[in-house]
Amino acid sequence: MPTLTINGKEVTVPRGTPVIRAAAMLGFNIPHFCYHPALSAPANCRMCLVEIERARKLEPACYAKCGDGMVVHTESEKVKVARRAVLEFILVNHPVDCPICDQAGECKLQDYYMAYDAEPSRLRTSKVGKSKVFPIGPHVVYDGERCILCTRCVRFCDQITGTSELAVVQRGDDSTIGTFPGRELDNAYSMNVTDICPVGALTTRDFRFKCRVWLLSSTDSICTGCSRGCNVHLEHFQGEVQRYRPRFNPEVNEYWMCDEGRLSYKQIHARRNVTLRVGDKSDLGWPRSARTFGALAKDRIGAGGDGVAFVASPLATTEGLYAGRKYAETVLGAKRFYVGGRADGDADAFLIRADKNPNRAGVTAVFGELPGVDALLDDMAAGRVRALWLMGTELAFDDAQRARFTELVQKLDLFVVQSLHDDALLAHADAVFPAASHAELEGTYINEQGHVQQVYKALEPEGPSRSDAEIFIRLAKGADQPFAFTDVDGIRAELYDSGAEA
Amino acid sequence: MNQQRSLAALEQDPAVGQHEDVMVLNMGPSHPAMHGTVRMVLTLDGETVVKCDPEIGYLHRGFAKQCEVATWTQVFPYTDRLNYVSPILNNLGYAHAVEQMLELELPARCNYVRTVMGEVSRICDHFTAIGAGALELGAMSAFLYAIEARDLIWDLVEEVTGARLTISYARIGGLKYDLTDDFEERWASIEPRLYETLKIVDQLATKNRVFMDRMEGTGAISAEDAISYGFTGPCLRSAGVAYDIRKDAPYFAYGEVDFEVPVGTKGDNYDRYLVRMAEVEQSIRIIRQCLRNMPDGAIMVDDPHVALPEKDVVYNSIEGMINHFKIIFEGIQVPAGEIYSATEAGNGELGFYIVSNGTGQPWRLRVRPPCFYMMGGIDRMLEGAMIADIIPTFDTINMIGGEIDR
Known about the structure:
By secondary structure, chain A is α/β, with parallel strands linked by helices. Chain A has 13 helices and 21 strands. The A-B interface holds A 91, 94-99, 104-105, 109-111, 113-114, 117-121, 123, 214 and B 304-305, 309, 313, 315-323, 325-326, 329-330.
């Protein structure tokens, strides 16, 4: 455990800690481009040079390991001159692109230039031109002129995904990031390189020219693409989600997320179900709809019984599921419970999980183990189900099963759909309740590792849609059997008291 | 319902015309003399004001709150709209406060140009106050002459700044534009006319019997009271206290010019009028000295963290582009800390209390407008006065709706 002094403050760190980490522990921010805590340190940007007493010359703080009795200065005059020189050198060939660059506003080059350089240009020749707008992969665009060759992207592909698509090609002024002939940057995590790129050299094709970053508001959220539940910054502007960015969580996703998950924000706004309908009336508003449905349900199924089935959604929040179970048992009188959700998909050994539902563990925590939709279809075909509440239209059916299911629901006494997205099944439902997306509510998801992770409300629900929990609370009230809780906090209090949480 | 009685019957009734109770009367906010922004709840005994309860708040834009979501530079247009009769003085007062937080040393020419334009603005403020005050007492001609003088000044201001009212002339660390090349010439051409106008207004009003009767002895306040209420500017000086920030804590080029601080003795409306008249002359003196000694040089500090780079540098080098981008989008980075800084505006001490958390936007910004405190003391000045005294008193304290935005 070496003890060293940085800018006059002493700190003891584990052996092998780079100086840049030790400085950060003391609150000294050393500027850096190429260093990334999850990647190896090649010390090629030279931005983090610091003065270490008795060293022959300035040392890169990302590469130099802390030694016992070391005395480090991060803000000495020598260091400042070196930083200015490094920045001037990096900016020599940098294009005047800020107005058309997606990175502008979250660009380290901009930040550091103002903080550590702010000198005018001394360039008297023309800049070296390189390839611009080069589609280096299906999701990523490369701009050679903006690139400062920090090689973070190269090391990401080598060390994190292990796919090694990228390399530095050519030499000197002509150096650029390239793929090997016939290959492209197409691994399942390719868009992470745009996050770690300190400048605008790598940008996502999805976010390109979509929104200036300083206009975005950011809300902490969870990716709902699979059961891993990667932590994200959900970034939105004017009521619309613009992008996800991975949020650091060493237990779940570290700094990363997969491309499919990153693009799954689009489902928040696509094909939204904004129909609130009871019987043939779709203009009642929530309070009257809830009362009308209460009467309708009473009329069709009475006090419930064995024929009343409820399909829980592993895409809903734990709070929504808890309110759903309570509603199904006490108000509908349901006796049969099933679990729906998306069909399994691809998986890998890193972050992508086969179970494409974010909260299957939550369903298990609230309901226990439930039979799947195959069992539901069998029970319906055998006439054991006369009323069905469908939470979410995501059902793991093949085409034939779906056709059979669509046929069977039309014979039910009561068929209710509560869904986020529009679906053909909605037309056959006796009542349709629009559900809010995870960007529009507060709640928790339990990931496959058992981590209870919270999402926060970023946007107002679209149209008449409401969170699952609110729908059940309203309907219970409409049926004159109100719950003891009226909001998510109340549900949580009850949920934790009952010990149902995993 | 009382039966309607004939006039003859009323005249004979001994109870009619006698009153025992005071009457409560709302003056404003829709009264022309109240500028639509103030209401006075008057308790009257006949025509005598027993109690006067001024109510502000009819104009509320949330100046302080707006500033918290603007960058330091974006605050300038809001300051234009504080005292809109002398916007440059507000611009400069705010810039001065932020510059002190940044510990900036301004170029000498910038200080001189600021002094000139500030005094030009002060002349405009005083002429407006004098003219409008006379007008509300019926002196239409005096008003027209004063407004003519103001228009000459506005032409000059427009020539330099490009705008007449909402000017936003100052920048943190300097000014938007230098004086025009022919500024001295233009000034030389309007200066005699300003003197002339001052003389005409003086002849029309100062010894006018009606004007004197309305002004002398009305709305008086003692020096002690004025200080205790927080009066500053002409209102305090008219009571005999020679407090002028330009003299007592010189800023810009005020330390290098020679001028007097006119004071009154009685603190009444007439003295306030006379102090303003005398101050116009002093302002002209200051301007003349500044123009004579005007140094050469830049009008912005040479600091890339504060001043925007030239446009051709912005468009043709990445260094200039980044510099411009960071100042425009993130704002000038003002070190964390707080400050109270005051300058002498048209109506007195214009203070800015600013807290910075080290970012590109003010964390908290409160303005101490001079006439807010005069409004606080107006009930004292009007106690026992006649209704007719309200008008000149309200005029000579020169209440500006934009400043007392609360």
